[in-house]
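User: Teach me something about this protein's shape.
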Amino acid sequence: MGAWGRLWVCKRSARYRAGFGFVATLLTVVCALAQNRPDIVWMRSGHGDGIFSVAFSPDGQYLASGSYDRTIKLWRVSDGSLVRTLTGHSDRVFSVAFSPDGGYLASGSSDRTLRLWRVSDGSLARTLRGHTSGVTSVAFSPDGGYLASGSWQEIKLWRVSDGVEVRTLTGHSNWVFSVAFSPDGGYLASGSWDRTIKLWRVSDGVEVRTLTGHIDWVTSVAFSPDGGYLASGSWDGVIRLWRVSDGSLVRTLTGHSGRVNSVAFSPDGRYLASGSSNRTITLWRVSDGSLVRTLTGHIDWVFSVAFSPDGGYIASGSNDRTARIWRVSDGVEVRTLTGYTSQVYSVAFSPDGGYLAIGGDDRALRLWRVSDGVEVRTLTGHSNWVFSVAFSPDGGYLASGSSDRTLKLWRVSDGVEVRTLTGHIDWVTSVAFSPDGQYLASGSWDSTIKLWRVSDGVEVRTLTGHTGVVRSVAFSPDGQYLASGGDDRIIRLWRVSDGSLARTLTGHTSGVNSVAFSPDGRYLASGSWQEIKLWRVSDGVEVRTLTGHVFFVYSVAFSPDGRYLASGGDDRTLRLWRVSDGALLITYDQETGSRIYSVQFSPDGRYFAYGCLDATVVLARNPFARREGDINGDGCVDDADLLAVLLAFGQTGSGQPEDVNNDGVVDDADLLEVLFNFGSGC
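Assistant: First, the predicted structure itself:
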């Protein structure tokens, strides 16, 4: 059954779930397994490296950016939010372009491929192979039928419908760094590092003329909207305007103090924008070549510029890892498209579920509001990467462990650093508070675990026994035990009261990256190479091994009700397992970044969050959490839930499932809650 068939079945099954129990259960599992993208509430990310290309969608709603970090990101222009990240290229992405109908996005990479992506869901439609060197530029023909790509000494023309290579255009003696179709689709222009611009006839690939005059690499070419002119930008610092009909030089625009990397005409043809290595975007009047204004704000080279379809805005992409949107009328920067540009090593929810803390390689801790993804506070003080973050049980403090060999304790209310704990002689990779908040445990590359008193920062004791890096520590829910896992492939269970070793769990054939207790304290989960093991705490017996990951598992976390286990790892997947029998319920492999270092459930179980190597932080809905208004707990807010509220209407007392808002009475408010969420999860 295809994806559309599964989707149809999932939707239709909701109507008949009540009457056909077994079939409904089966279809529910099918629906879950068919889903490979989390139900994302918000996603925050920035590129992890310079942005080389930006492009507006034809309707102006989206902006795409291609980066040296090997990804393409799709941003919503209206609010600057990240819609999705497209991964698949194995090397730098040099160029992105939307098809004229907005249905596809093309990308060219130094991995020698072009990729064609569906904008609607981010799926990969086609990979075009044939270049023997990196693909430095891509452009769609005006009718969307063809795609042109530039590479080393050549341009290829591809048919979009089936990906067939139509022809190869040769003549340049160096890299072709820019290609552009004329508005009528009859010609193709190319700019090269051989310092020339060539004009080609699309119908037969004949070279019509070569334009010379630049004294350094030509990095960008663009046709005017009426097709009468061609603009070229070069590393010689100037922009040249050529007449297409005869190739004559109309005008030379000078003023950049650096190399020109990109040029673009406004939709009405009145203006020309250029981006430069001097960190600025310059706006020129085409009629006389005068300088209209200079836009400043980027802190590194500007590689790409693009006008919005209505001409009201300019987008720019820079080596400073940001894309920015500017208002043309006054040059004001409207929005910076970025968020979190650091590799994410650890995420943690506050006990009340209101905040999410993040630690990464930018040496800072960041506090985000869960409700809307707004960054509330940035805590700075570590001199190196932050590997682990943890909230105190009362939510008043935040602890962090760093490769600067220290732990820091921060006050959440104002972000003040309360104290720094020193004593480890190597990186601190994991921190955890005891359930009563009195102690803080830390695991380190120095093979030790240290127990600290929170009130005064005194080191209570050091636990030794591991023969390799200690990568994870966790307290049992009752605070009696501390579990630790490390590179020596062993999990150790310590008594907190005296630091004695209670039990050693062996069975992993590779290092242990993560340990987590179940909420009731009965089980301990551990993540390692390609597997998760579930252990019974009372006697140390291995209950089961969960397999499915194909590389290291970096993080494991139990849902608050203990029924489910989440895992994330090096294989770019996030998996949800049923604890009772070890069944793999869902594998998410979209919007999961390049490597998942940390995953956590929110305290109420409604959400899970994860952080990735590619600087992505995601908050998503737990598919197994009871939805608001789902009275009978079948995962779908439907007629049965509405009927349940109506039958219980007017009843009073606490703990009634029909009392959705828990105010002690089943009334209009509960009815409205069901109606508001009607159809959710179905």
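Now, about its shape. Residues 1-34 have pLDDT under 50 and may be disordered. The longest helix spans residues 3-16. If you'd like, I can walk through any region in more detail.
User: That's plenty for now, thanks!
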